[in-house]
Amino acid sequence: MDTLRAKLSFFVSLSLIAIIGAILIFLGILNHRESVNHAREKLLGLAQDGVMLIRWDDIAAVDLAEDPTKTPAYQTLKQRICLIREQRRDVRRIFILLHAGSEGHFLTVADLFWDSENSFAPRYFTGSGDPFEVRYRPDVMMGLMIPTVDRQAIKVEGEMTLTGYAPLRNAEGKNVGVMGISIPETTAYGNHGKFQILIIVLFLLCLPVSVVLGNAVAVVADEPLQKLISGTRSVMAGNLQYRLEEVDGPREISELTEAFNKMIANLDVSRRMVQGYVMRAVQMLVKIQEARDKYTKGHSERVAQYAEKIARKMGMNEDNVSLMRDMGMLHDIGKMGIEEEILNKPDKLTREEWAKVRKHPEVGEEILRPIFLNREILSIVKHHHERFDGQGYPDQLKGEEISLFAQIISVADSFDAMTSPRAYRPAMAIRDAAKELEKHRGSQFNPKVVDLFLRILREEHKI
Predict the structure, then answer these.
(1) Distance separating alpha carbons of residues 365 and 383, to the nearest angstrom
(2) What is the pLDDT of residues 420-461, one digit of tens each?
(3) 94 and 119: one domain?
(4) 378-396 burial by CB neighbour count: b if 16+ within 10 A, else e?
(5) 410 and 338 housed in the same domain
């Protein structure tokens, strides 16, 4: 019995330490995320407000051919930049860049640096008219299109700083440049470092308490302990939908069970939120990708709509309907790795070009792997070009070996491809595209999916 109690005491103490540690880590993640989001929002707002204070006429008046820093036009621009800095004294650097025409090339209009929060007189960081190196600064290029913030801090003059960017528009409303505003990383993230130290102290203080409590609970906690261990293992395996049932035992066990369930629920919510943020970012990349080709613009959105309609017609629950909509948007993300010349080629592709195109489902799976841990979800992107008869790619799966979700995307994707114009052919009529689906029913496509989609087309288009 003593040996059993010792083992129970050890495992209970270990579980409590793990749970307390997970809670503290979760709080630290929330605090860090809140600090990062707050910093990003502040920087985005500051950059966008700064752009509003700068007039295009003031920028256009600066002659970059020679050193303009002594000219009245430059001094006027400098005064407006200093007005931006007066709004926030921790600003370290403000710079204005003009896009030089070719990708990745910018010219510096103004680049001012303040040594400290108490320094009112800026000094020049980069000369006006000098090239601005953006090879390792992808966020600068993004800032030419939309307001954005550095994904990670960058060292400037020995200090780690975060920079917010906002696009500059000329008199015609065209994006022609970028304004960047930098603040220290320590200022941006506030007291997160102190919060981390507090978490470590709390964790160390909780260690002896956990051991004592584990020893006390071990006397009567054999069965409840087994349930807690089972739940912990399930969550560690990635099942954030797991919840512990109410267990008999001391009040501490009941409270621990409740705290465990709340913690997992919060982790699940946080995971969904983070996944949602990343999904929106990836969807934006898909739209940028489609913008490269006028013939496929809007293709993913239409595939998402068709897939959603098929899923609803099939009677799927809302989670799966939402999944089909998301996967419809992302199914061709792997084409980001294919050259534009191949995607828009009006002639027949060479064997080498076709091999590159056939790689896009696998490339798409690799891109989405950090977002979706579920293999079944990843298989939707990887296998949407598999055929029902096993003649598809990349794995030559057939019949029920192919995920039903992937088979739905396959039908939606093929229908939109047929009814959309391409560089090498005009768009096909809806009635003719429907006949093609029916023709390849059972060979290329799942018959049940085709039948459902044809029913939708008849209801909507009276074909």
Answers:
(1) 9
(2) 887 667 889 999 999 999 999 999 999 999 999 999 999 998
(3) yes
(4) bbbbbbbbbbbeeebbebe
(5) yes
Tell whether 278 is covered by a domain.
no
Q: Mean pLDDT for the chain?
A: 79
The residue-averaged pLDDT of 289-309 equals 78
Q: Are residues 179 and 254 in the same domain?
A: no
Contact 319, 301 (CB under 8 A): no
pLDDT band at 2 (very low <50, low <70, confident <90, very high): very low
* Residues 214, 216: Cα–Cα separation, whole Å: 5
Spatial neighbors of 11 by CB under 8 A, at least 6 apart, are 214, 218, 225, 229
Question: Are residue 183 and residue 195 in the same domain, yes or no?
Answer: no
Which range of residues forms the domain containing residue 372?
292-461
| Rounded CA separation 27/109 (Å) | 43
Confidence bin at 44 (pLDDT 50/70/90): confident
Residue 165, Cα to own-chain centre: how many angstroms?
19
| Helix (H) or strand (E) run with residue 268 in it | helix 251-291
| Separation of CA 20 from chain center | 29
Of 254 and 13, which is predicted with more confidence?
A: 254
390 phi-psi bin (left φ>0, alpha ψ -120 to 50, beta other):
left
Same domain membership, residue 201 and residue 168: no
Contact 282, 328 (CB under 8 A): no
Within this chain, do residues 246 and 329 fall inside the same structural domain, yes or no? Answer: no
Count of beta carbons in the 10 Å neighbourhood of residue 120: 10
Answer yes or no: do 29 and 99 share one domain.
no
Structure tokens at 398: 């057939």
Given a contact cutoff of 8 angstroms between Cβ atoms, the answer to whether 54 and 77 are in contact is yes
pLDDT single digits (tens) 90-110: 888 999 998 887 767 888 888
pLDDT at 4 over 50: no
109 membership: H or E segment, kind and range: strand 105-113
Tell me the CB-side half-sphere exposure of residue 388, using CA atoms within 13 A: 19
What pLDDT score does 47 carry? 87
Total structural domains within the chain:
3
| 252, 220 contact by CB (below 8 A) | no
**pTM score > 0.85 for this model?**
no
Nearest to 419 by CA among 313, 295, 330, 237: 295
